[in-house]
Amino acid sequence: MNNGKISVQQMAILVLLVVIGDSILIAPSLVAHFAKEDAWISGLLGVVLGTLLAGLIYFLSRLHPHATLVQFNRTLLGKWMGGIMSSLFLLYFLLNAAAMTREIGDFITTQIMPETPLRAIHLLLVILLMWALYSGIETIARTAELLFPWFVIFFVVLLICLAPKIEIDRLLPIMGHGFMPILQGSIYVIVFPYAELTVFLMLFPLVTRNKHTNRDFILATALGGIAITAVILICILVLGPYITAHQTYPTYALAKKISIGGFLERVEAFLAIIWIISIFFKTILYAYAFLTGFSQLFHLRNERILLMPSAFLFFGLAYAISPNIIYYDYFLTNYWPLWDFTYALVIPLVLMIVHLFRRKKRAHSV
């Protein structure tokens, strides 16, 4: 699976796809629930704070640039404590991959093919997921590079086609509910796009770095956040804050409103393509991080022997992780942000403090 390197450009594309990921469909509803018509301000604030969080994750990767997160934990914390810390991250990667598989399944079975069993969608997704993992990280990165221009074209066309539906008055009053709702809404822009970039701690050693690696990583995270903010803004301008907040997939409802000359209509399938491309690559990277981390933790020579057991694990967890979409949305809103912040902010800060303390201790001993 580690059959080669990925370029900085490919890394930037993967970062963009991970940042946009599932947020393009679920973020407008979550943010508008708190910030109402100021959701776009929450988006901008989230981009600023989220980019800082992404910088923290990148800084952690630079402490040992040729080591994955699992290898870094073992070097820093020792065999046993490092193994425990790595196991926690493997659980995080596993549950995220299963949760995103469930998100795709819920979206398809509720919006596109309601008569199709959820497990049938999950089975197809897991088969594609295993095929991608078997092909290796270089093939995954090249495929993302190939599909990315189509992703951009569909995204831009979607925004342009919605321009006639815009009503500026829906943004008023600006900050009519104070700053606290804006801050609450920004949490969801920070968490789902940016906190989940921890998966790249398993990928950075494979990147052929150059002098622009740092710049391209931060630029990709910022552009992804701006794209999400643009989607939030267009949802408020077209649907209004109330409908945006009370739709499970407001962006998909937005695409259904496109009608140009009575000819160009029902183009929501293009939005579905955009979303499935971004979230599926995000799912692939989390599954890859889990398999690679597991093999490194237990010193396996070939990760591919884990593909079949992992397929059953992803398939079962995706179905068992939630009894229905209502429960999943409730858990996503109230508890998942704490889960993401723990692995993207709290634990990385602890690891950096331990690293600095040990480096200082070594300097004094010399």
Write up what this structure looks like.
The chain is 75% helix and 1% strand. With 366 residues, the chain is mainly alpha-helical. It has a single domain, classed as Amino acid/polyamine transporter I, CATH 1.20.1740. Strand 1 (259-260) and strand 2 form a beta hairpin. The protein starts with 7 loop residues before the first helix and ends with a helix.
Structural features:
two-stranded antiparallel sheet; mainly alpha; 366 residues; Amino acid/polyamine transporter I; 2 strands
What topology emerges from the helices and strands here?
Elements: H1 8-20, H2 23-35, H3 39-63, H4 69-77, H5 79-112, H6 118-135, H7 137-161, H8 180-194, H9 213-239, H10 241-246, H11 250-255, E1 259-260, E2 264-265, H12 268-297, H13 307-320, H14 325-334, H15 336-365
Antiparallel strand pairs: 1-2
